[in-house]
Amino acid sequence: MSTSTKYIFVTGGVTSSLGKGIIAASLAKLLQAQGYRTTIQKLDPYINVDPGTLNPYEHGECYVTEDGAETDLDLGHYERFLNVPTSQANNVTTGRIYQSVIEKERRGEFLGKTVQVIPHITDEIKERIQILGKSGNFDIVITEIGGTVGDIESLPYIEAVRQLKWDLGEHNALVVHLTLVPYLSAAGELKTKPTQHSVKTLMESGVQADVLVCRTEHDLPIELRRKLALFCNVREEAVIQSIDASTIYDVPKLMLKQGLDKVVLKKLNLPSSEPDLAQWDKFLTRLKNPITEIHIGLIGKYVELQDSYKSILEAFIHAGAENEVRVVVEPIHSEYLNEDNIKLKLSHLDGVLVAPGFGERGIEGKIDAIKYVRTHNIPFLGVCLGMQMAVIEFSRNVLGLKDANSTEMNPKTDNPVIDMMEDQKTIVNKGGTMRLGSWACQLVPDSIARKVYKSDAISERHRHRYEFNGKYKEQIEAAGMKATGLNPDTGLVEIIEIPSHPWFVGVQYHPEYKSTVANPHPLFVAFVKAALKHKKEKAHAKMAK
Ligand code: GLN
Predict the structure, then answer these.
(1) Average pLDDT for consecutive 10-residue bins of the chain (545 residues)?
(2) 286: which of 191, 279, 352, 367 is 20 to 30 A away, CA to CA?
(3) Is the CB of residue 464 below 6 angstroms from any atom belonging to ligand 1?
(4) How many angstroms is it from 482 CA to the middle of ligand 1?
(5) Where are the alpha helices (DSSP H) in 33-152?
(6) From atom 1 of ligand 1, which residue's Cα is the shortest distance away?
(7) How far is CA 391 from the centre of its chain?
């Protein structure tokens, strides 16, 4: 089979959470910075068709693409590093593979054959891997295989990699295997055995790793690299160390220093050059040399989990660097917030973001927090559920509609200021049926949004079933909360602001999904700026006293 697209497979061994996504994204960045059109795909071994129905406790954040795919959070890293949008084709799960094979079987496409893991499931996997390559849009496709080698559920993927490597031929495909080299402090030694075993496990499935990326807390001495090369059948220069970094954004440069890009390009028979990382370096310099710091409260119900609000945390890193400030995000659990402790928990903050979410747990704490920041002039950004809670808080405490609520939380409320979208009312299935992906939005002149975006028409990514209830728009606007962003076709309210407040913005969409290193999201940049201003004004007021 001849092909012009080259394929790189990234597998993981020894343990999960080694950061395959970051290594894949870093390698992609280095290749992109040498002029190769590169994309990254994630294959997930679970049976859910997509992570849209998964609880963040199970799976962390659900990332949403332009075309409305609910995907693994690693796709967020891919976009943040590469600044190129991903799509449904970039994330495939075992559930989706089986669903598609079973649908083909029902249509009679297998002509009476027994449908089996090999070749039918593996063929479907191979097809999905090559969709991006065949689009003609990419020179290199990096496919990250979720899970750890040796897992029963990832076996069909490894088998598909074995077959594809063979089909594609030498110089067209290679395997980067990410492993752990643990340090035993009692022995004072780095240990190679787990890596040897995981490479061996991969070989039992007929796949030879071409490059080893070894996660380690200490530098790997040359003898140890030699030993790994010898035992694992890889060249010495293809044993790459990936040492713990203070920020994930350091990893591309660390990989560059280790020559990961060169090793890979050589194996693929492609020319290598000095990557142009000028913009990346500029970002790193700003990130590492903040002039001051601000404290932002992140109010949500999954705050104990780092991965639940991944894109929001990263958007703050981008926006902080852009403003040359360190953004210290203080996670605040909305379930434990109430009128009595609100001042203690929020009064020192320079800004507050109320997070997206589903269901009733913790919403009253979010509403109390919004009341506090609204009445204390603290900059506020409400995202999705956070925006909806801002509308509820305003309706209850300014309009005096005491039982104002979302029908998601109280279907019987007399004042459903947030209500289910009309076209959602007939939907029965939960998976993939929300209002998803990119939607247009028209901005109102003189609004914060209009100034921030520097444009009248924008598009942002959504993931929700409920919306601002248009029946209350006039009443809410008359009381001082304005709808400043509307869907041009349906009139749905996508943005609300309170012009009498220094910076109070709620958005029905998720701006965090579109923030990248090259393009920090303007709304996050402006929010951080507003928080910085708030901090300075607070300091002045204190001095004046
Ligand atoms: N639960 C709300 C809705 O479905 C908000 C969703 C979200 O925050 N992503 O409309």
Answers:
(1) 81 90 97 97 95 86 96 96 96 97 96 95 97 94 94 95 95 97 93 95 96 96 95 94 95 97 97 97 97 96 85 98 97 93 96 94 94 98 98 98 96 96 86 92 97 97 96 97 97 97 98 98 98 94 84
(2) 352
(3) yes
(4) 20
(5) 56-59, 74-82, 94-106, 122-134
(6) 358
(7) 27
